Amino acid sequence: MNTFDRKTYLRLMGSFLAGGFLPDFRKEASNLDLFSGGELIYQNPFSKERDTEDFRLEGQAYIRFPNRRLQMENKLPASEGKRANFVYWCPKDFPKNIRVEWEFYPLREPGLCVFFFGAKGINGESIFDSSLQQREGIYPRYHSGDINTYHLSYFRRKHKSERGFQTCNLRKSKGFHMVAQGADPIPSVADSIAPYKLKLVKHDGVIAFSINDLIVLEWQDDKAHGKILTDGKIGFRQMAPLIAEYSNLNVFRI
Known about the structure:
By secondary structure, the chain is mainly beta. The chain is 11% helix and 41% strand. The chain has helices spanning 6-17, 25-30, 140-143, 160-164; strands at 39-44, 56-58, 61-64, 70-74, 86-89, 98-108, 112-121, 147-154, 167-173, 177-183, 196-203, 206-211, 214-220, 233-239, 243-253. The longest helix is centred in the N-terminal third of the chain and has 12 residues, at 6-17. The radius of gyration is 18 Å and the shape is globular.
């Protein structure tokens, strides 16, 4: 199972059916409180242009700060298909055990968001190494090209099927392997009460994700799709025609 082993699952369901209550997922699933504490190693308010002057844009997008938040929108029309999507990379390299926190404000849909983490070239080089294929936001270069990365998709509202059954999906690449899935509690734009506080944990192969402190998914990398990914870069991807804002990016060493 994605979030628990079978024994834990049966015990939790037994408690529920007996009229008990479900215990805290963090303690049951990982026995570590990975969603708080740690050493703050990177902080970015995303409030002005200077905050992202070193970020790397792949593809074409409008990068603005109209509300003292990072607002991103595709520059190419959505009718261009995959060419209209883009990725915005943080230039820093982060260690293997981290928690990443940021705030998310959806403004226009349809669309979809992806967060890349632990990203490096397939031979351990930087994803910005000149020997790697040029990337311009078209997805296959990220999941089946010459980089390894985990990628978490959330606010998946691009296609009708995604809007009809809303999930967060965790994949591991190279190879586009779906490894975990959980329900997405963020509503559509019309009903959103922003900001939504997102937390992504990566700790010794354990990956967990929460929205407003509700744990959405947790997974232990079992190396079925290659070695556990360690250090590397993080990046934000959007699918057109989504407009969204981001703020208060913090990264902790845990």
